[in-house]
Specification:
139 residues, five-stranded mixed sheet, alpha/beta, Transcription Regulator spoIIAA
Length: 139
């Protein structure tokens, strides 16, 4: 799987670090892993970090199918739960914006896409300005 998932219970935040070549299946597995983790609450925020992605194998129809599947998994997620996607380069930002456009009306999350770490963490109400600082502090 091209994603590593951590749930930081003390911060009520799930962190998914995607790397290498990422497919919709990788995304779905990470999403399911977060939602089925016993430390995940109904309002656990999500941070998807795409900074280590080399390639994203997806298109509009695959993204639409991904969101439809995710919708079925989010029954216990509180509406308005915060979700940030950190996508610093053009490839990941474009794919993340496509996901955002489809997911914002289907999923219960308040999803935003960011090119910089500090605004992504601020959206999740975290005080750190970088993901590395967050990971150190959240341990």
């Amino acid at each position: 799987m091209a994603v590593d998932v951590s749930v930081f219970e003390s911060r009520n935040l799930a962190y998914a670090r995607f790397h290498g070549n990422v497919t919709p299946v990788d995304n779905l597995r990470a999403f399911d892993s977060i939602l089925t983790d016993p430390r995940t609450r109904a309002d656990t925020a999500h941070l998807a970090d795409l900074s280590a992605v080399n390639d994203m194998e997806t298109d509009f129809l695959q993204t639409l199918s991904l969101v439809a599947t995710q919708t079925r998994l989010t029954g216990r997620v509180l509406p308005g739960t915060r979700y940030a996607v950190f996508a610093p380069d053009d490839l990941t930002f474009g794919a993340a914006r496509m996901f955002h456009q489809i997911a914002e009306t289907a999923l219960p999350y308040q999803i935003e896409v960011f090119r910089r770490e500090a605004p992504a963490l601020a959206h999740l109400r975290q005080p750190e300005r970088s993901i590395s600082d967050f990971l150190i502090a959240a341990e």
